[in-house]
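Entry 14. Structure prediction run on the chain below.
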Amino acid sequence: MTTNRALDMLARLGELIQTTRDPAAMPLALLNLTREVIPWQDATLYLYDESSRQLKCASRVGREVNLITPVSFELGEGMAGWVAHRRKPLLLNDIQRRRPQAECYWRSFISVPLVVEEELVGVLNFGHQEPDPFTTVDIDLLTVLGSQAALIIRNIELVKRLHRSHIKLQESFARLRRMQAQLLEQEQLNTISRMVTTLNHEINNPLTAIAGNAELLALRLGEDEDARSKLETILSETHKLGGILHQLANMRHPVIESYLDEGEMFNLRASSEVPLVVETEI
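Output returned:
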């Protein structure tokens, strides 16, 4: 009979895994499954939290079931912490008869550790207000179910961790791609900067000489308006070339636009107005 009940519970557990779409609903579903074969009134599932190294209540039906909660053990409070430390199930029937002076909401109590390959996953606690509702057979059934449930819960947690790691990895890749694009853009700007420095060196000096000589000639021409107009045009164009070199020197973010049919060119005004933001944090 015990074997049949155990097989039935494992079959129901497999069905539960297939039908429960939300992993967060699994703890409560697991508690409800045990109620079909164990006559408990209140139940609590504690899961081991690696960050705090303590048991934490993951789900409960009715009251949170635990005993001697003022006492703390290495892995948690009360009997749950004690069972987690010993890694062995505990059955207490008719608690008031054994300790008549103690006040306890439950007359009977079962605690079963959830362990996978000596790794603690959690603890299942069950309480009942009547004496002697639980048997050693129930302990055996819960131990079988608990070992399988522990494996399922651990796998769910591993999937969650992998999902979180995948999201963080995607975010890191996105930042790296942005940084790569910005670094490439910065390298292009460095190339443009070297080109502008060369242009300033090679063109500015001749332009200065041209502008200076044009101004001297304009002073000596006297009343020759036609020649003066041509010299003013030369001066205007040299100043314009100087402005173009200044815009090139202040280029912050290359903005490219179409030129004629198939060509492209820099929009110098837009390129010198858009600030460059480089992301450094990964």
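Residues 98-102, 276-282 have pLDDT under 50 and may be disordered.
Filed with the rest of this week's runs.
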